[in-house]
Give the backbone structure.
Amino acid sequence: MQSFPSLPSNFLTNPLRDFLLKQSPKITRFFPATVQKLKLGNQKVKITNPISLTPYAGTVPCSAKCKFCCERLVRNNGELLPFQCAIEDGEYFQILKASLSQLSRIPTSFTMSGLEPTSNREWLIDCLRILRQHEQSNIGMVDSKYLYSNASGFALSSSGSRNRSRQRSTAIDLINSLVDWQPDRIDVSRHHYDPVVNQQIMQFRKGVQIQDQDVFQSTISDLKDLLPIRLDCVLQKDGIGDLDQCINYLNWAKKLGLKEVAFRSLAKLPTNSSLVRNQVFNYINNQQVPINQIVYQALKHRPKDWKLIQMKIGYYYYNLSLSYKNGMTATFEACDYDLLTKRQNSGIIYKLVLHPNGSLNASWDPTENILISKENVLSVTNPETFSTNRREHKFENVHRESN
Ligand code: SF4
């Protein structure tokens, strides 16, 4: 009999939990993680293998203002928003190169996210170029590559001014650069198949073309043959909030020529936190949809339509992939910020984020767990960055560890 000790019973709840135990699904476990020791910055640290690194895209505000956006949560300490403290691009990319040189021959998973990575296409193109150089060098060991986007920077407007035609040209450059990067997946967020409801949730800024349903659909249609696209829908009471709506969404995605959709629950916010009780905080708490019940309803009550394919257990999330009778795969994912905090405080690094202020942290919070800062980057820079000579990896030993 399998068990899920790392997933608290108030997170993976009954009756789904007991149902899954009886089903004995195929499980891929990323937690407990394989851990390796290395020197990062000027510190000796333990990191997971592979380690996930996010160059945080935050030089400009996002093209949308999703009502649940965690990046719009504010702490009591009055911190600045990411783009308000972004350093100049050239300096940022030097720190990115220095960070990559520290990860010499360490299996790394690149996750491009932050605010909206395609809002500043030139920045993203440059960033991808550096990641590709690292991958092609003798020190680069890349495990996987993902991009999270609302697709606004991919929209190809053909009409109008010189500015529009320049935008079209950089959008094409960006798409080509992504094709060269060969991502494992691009998750495109869209939270409803009805454009009016979607706009109420995502609140794209004035003039952002991707809010238009025809533009979105034709953009996806252009991209899907070039890049592995999955739609990403956050479940919420005012949007997709029950099993029947999930089915409608899957039918719409199938018409767009896609094969996969992710349904994510809104994050369970940390219980003891310094987060300001602002509109976003209240929206996240008030709009929660019971994802465990939706999955249970599908598997238990409609077994002819839905089949469980696999389960993944991560350090603060789980996801369940189900096939639906129309040929689509739906992955239901839930995460818990209390678990995230617990793992982050365990002494093991699960995540590296290079923040817009040029600080490499073992945390999504730029003030916590700083490993390399703009000030100390020179002292940790490896002169052999992108060397063509093969170097031995630095980690001292590898073992499995849990907390
Ligand atoms: S697209 Fe992403 S970053 Fe932008 S507002 Fe929505 S959730 Fe936030």
About this structure: Residues 62, 64-66, 69, 71, 115-116, 150, 189 surround iron/sulfur cluster (CB under 6 Å). Residues 16-51+60-87+144-353 form a domain with the TIM Barrel fold (CATH 3.20.20). Residues 158 and 165 are 7 Å apart (CA to CA). Confidence is low (pLDDT under 50) at residues 383-403.
